[in-house]
Amino acid sequence: MNNPHRFRENKVRGIVMSILLFLSGCMIPLVMFAIVVWGLLNHVDIFDAFVDGAKDGMLTVYKILPTLIGLMVGIGILRESGGLSALARIVSPLAGLFHFPGELVSLVIVKMFSSSAATSLLLDVYKQFGTDSYLGVLASVLMSCSETIFYTVSVYFVTAKVAKTRFTIPGGLLATLAGIVASVLLVKV
User: Fold this and answer.
1) Cα separation values, 3 from 6, 8, 11, Å
2) Are 96 and 102 spatial neighbours (Cβ–Cβ below 8 Å)?
3) Is the dihedral of CA 98, 100, 106, 109 positive or negative?
4) CA angle (60 as vertex; 56, 64 as ends), nearest 5
5) Which of 106, 183, 100, 113 is nearest to 144 (CA)?
6) pLDDT tens digits, residue range 136-147?
7) Which residue, 13, 99, 154, 165, is most buried by CB atoms nearer than 10 A?
8) What is the DSSP letter of 189?
9) Residues of the chain by 3-state class (helix, strand, coil), percent to 5
10) Do the Cβ atoms of 140 and 106 come closer than 8 Å?
């Protein structure tokens, strides 16, 4: 038997979801339109500003490209050589003391360097354990609760010509540790 109250709830949810999907589809064109209107109202040559911004963006890409290539090659070599697996095996007993699954140690390590490489490892976790398993859910939450520390520091500090990172890396590592702890606690609850 169908419950009429539940039917109405589902219909309202469907309508709300349709409205949200419509708004999300309109958001980028609305923002673009707002920028153009703002530029016209402030007498800004929009096309020249766009070209200058694109030129600056290309120069930034040119400056950080060697760093990006170095990071990607390094992660690829580490992963394909088995070094990442060996490092994960070394760290796994320590992680086990804190009730962190050893299968996700390599994901956490790689995420600090490259989000795309970590996504590849995440897909491996999904294939091996399933998306709805404890490890699959924990891996998903870990990906959201951590940052690509070394990638971010290298790219942004190279671009800004900052030579001394000071407390950036220790702070990033501490924030990643807090994200790992929060992920484990959130998924266990």
Assistant:
1) 5, 9, 12
2) yes
3) negative
4) 175
5) 183
6) 999 999 998 888
7) 154
8) -
9) 85, 0, 15
10) no
* Joined tokens for residue 151: 């990638």
For residues 89 and 109, the answer to whether their CB atoms sit within 8 Å is no
Q: Write the CB contacts of 10 (distance below 8 Å, at least 6 apart in sequence).
A: none
Q: Which amino acid appears at position 3 of this protein?
A: N
Return d(Cα 176, Cα 69) in angstroms, integer.
24
Reading the block at residue 41, the tokens are 């109202």
Express each pLDDT in 156-187 by its tens digit: 887 788 878 888 889 999 999 999 999 999 99
Residue with tokens 């949810």, as numbered in its chain: 13
